Amino acid sequence: MNVRSLRPATALVALGVALLSTPVATAAPSDPSRPRAALPTLTSVQAQHVGKVDRVTFGFVNGAPTNIHLEWVDTLRHDGSGLPVRVAGAKVLMVVFNNALAHDSGGATVRNRTAFALPNVITAVGAGDFEGSVSFGLGVQKRTSYTVTTLHGPDRVVVDVAAGFRTTTRKVWFGDRNADVVAVNRPVPAAAPAAGALRSLFAGPLRSERADGLRLVRSGAWGFDRLSVVDGVARLRLTRGCRSGGSTTTIASEIMPTLRQFPTVDWVKIYGPGGRTEDPTGPSDSIPLCLEP
């Protein structure tokens, strides 16, 4: 995923992105007697809602990268292997920093996966730190416009993702230390609150919620699709994986209360990746065989 063909300004203008950064001076001829300058190293990924945007700030030391590539993708791919990376959201904004690192002699310098309680950007997931290229995917509720700004003092790259749409607050249930499920609040798009709540579920708990013992019980699933609500019955299919691991607390334990909070939902039928559930008809909840203990 190492992107080398475009200079930063050219790449971002081609994508319709505004790049505001300090001009880069022309490099002097290299002197083999002098040690090579350290590459910019990513040390933090933070996000907050500001005005009508969700602002994701990538913090660096040793300067900020000058070769940055952004692109909307359906599936984030791991840099190097090319394998798909699990990212919750309706769409993924891929962010690639060339000539940068996300590690030092002590190991990784930034968390690989972080959830956010924001209207649009719900997670940031690392996809590689490979051959001087660092890549992340921002999972979002809705594909919108974005801008990129490079700042210094301290060094950081700021990605503003538009989030001016109307939202509502809904609950999302996660597992806890006692194998129960606990509700937390999330902002979700008012136009599609059920889908938004499920995407927030698959993004996982916030760092503070994890410290309190909450966790996403995925049961091997990466996400969901084919969500519908008809005559009081919500139906959805799990994607990629499905296994209970012998536990009575599964992804179904979190999905069902998350969907039943909506007044139009009386029953929830969850289908496995193969499209099957134990009781596909009638007024009842249903899970696939792969979620049975």
Provide a concise account of the structure shown.
Helix content is 11%, strand content 40%.
Model description:
With 293 residues, the chain is mainly beta. It folds into two domains: 137 residues, Immunoglobulin-like (Sandwich); 125 residues, no CATH class. Helix content is 11%, strand content 40%. The protein is built from four helices and 19 strands. It has a five-stranded mixed beta sheet with strand order 1-13-14-3-2. A five-stranded antiparallel beta sheet has the order 4-7-12-11-10. It has a three-stranded mixed beta sheet with strand order 17-18-19, with helices on one face. Helix 4 links the parallel strand 18 and strand 19. Helix 2 runs antiparallel to helix 4. The chain starts with 7 loop residues before the first helix and ends in a 22-residue tail after the last strand.
What is the share of helical residues?
10-25%
> What structural category arises from helix and sheet content?
mainly beta
Number of helices: 4
Instruction: Give a short account of the largest sheet.
Output: 5 strands, mixed
CATH class of the largest domain: Mainly Beta
The assembly state of the depicted protein chains is: single chain
- Largest sheet, order of strands side by side? 1-13-14-3-2
The CATH topology of the largest domain = Immunoglobulin-like
Question: What overall form do the CA principal axes indicate?
Answer: elongated
Number of domains: 2
Q: What's the structural blueprint in terms of helices and strands?
A:
Layout: H1 8-14, E1 19-20, E2 41-50, E3 53-61, E4 67-73, E5 76-77, E6 84-85, E7 91-98, E8 103-104, E9 107-108, E10 113-115, E11 121-130, E12 133-140, E13 146-151, E14 156-162, E15 167-175, E16 181-189, H2 193-203, H3 207-211, E17 223-230, E18 233-239, H4 251-260, E19 267-271
Parallel strand pairs: 1-13, 18-19
Antiparallel strand pairs: 2-3, 3-14, 4-7, 5-6, 7-12, 8-9, 10-11, 11-12, 13-14, 15-16, 17-18
